[in-house]
TrEMBL record:
Biological classification of the source: Bacteria, Bacillati, Bacillota, Clostridia, Lachnospirales
Transmembrane segment boundaries: 12-33
Pfam families xrefs: DUF4446
UniProt protein name: DUF4446 domain-containing protein
InterPro entries assigned to the protein according to its UniProt record, in alphabetical order: DUF4446
UniProt KW keywords: Membrane, Transmembrane, Transmembrane helix
Length: 168
């Protein structure tokens, strides 16, 4: 009666509904296959584990992550402290060996410059003679000395600062 009112033949409606049922059956089969794969993956994931064991494993891993975060923070703090301490240590060195007197041989005298990153430090000059060894120290501030430096001391200072362009 409705088909006559709308002007359709009932055969077309039945064919359309059969096609719709066929599409739905195909979608259901695809859904069943995907669900089967999901169950298989779930069984592999849960194999040998119950919910309590899985929860314990997750809690253990989260605690390990927290421990790693805390260790990383401690490492960053220690690195910062080490970097600050390194600014005050002697990092640069220049050494020049020489003969203080013409009659002495073997280059037993030396000038040793020790500087920090800001070129502050000292120069030790040890002069070896037949009577003994005399040592002198001169303070270095910003790569300069208030006291006049000998040629060997200046060369040691230049070596420590990386300035090897002095005439010998």
């Amino acid at each position: 009666m409705i088909s006559q009112y709308l002007g359709f033949d009932s055969d077309y409606i039945i064919i359309g509904l059969a096609a719709l049922v066929l599409i739905l059956i195909i979608l259901m089969i695809i859904n069943v296959v995907q669900m089967s794969k999901l169950k298989k993956s779930y069984k592999i994931f849960m194999k040998g584990k119950n919910a309590k064991n899985l929860e314990d494993t997750l809690i253990k891993r989260l605690n390990q992550v927290d421990d790693l975060i805390n260790a990383n923070s401690a490492n960053e703090k220690n690195i910062k402290t080490l970097f600050q301490n390194m600014q005050r240590t002697y990092q640069k060195m220049g050494l020049v060996k020489y003969d203080a007197f013409n009659e002495m041989g073997g280059k037993l005298s030396f000038s040793l410059a020790m500087l920090d990153v800001k070129n502050n430090g000292f120069i030790i000059n040890a002069m070896h003679t037949r009577e003994g060894c005399y040592t002198y120290i001169k303070e270095i501030i910003d790569g300069n000395s208030v006291i006049v430096l000998s040629g060997e001391e200046q060369e040691a200072l230049n070596n420590a600062m990386g300035e090897n362009n002095i005439a010998k």
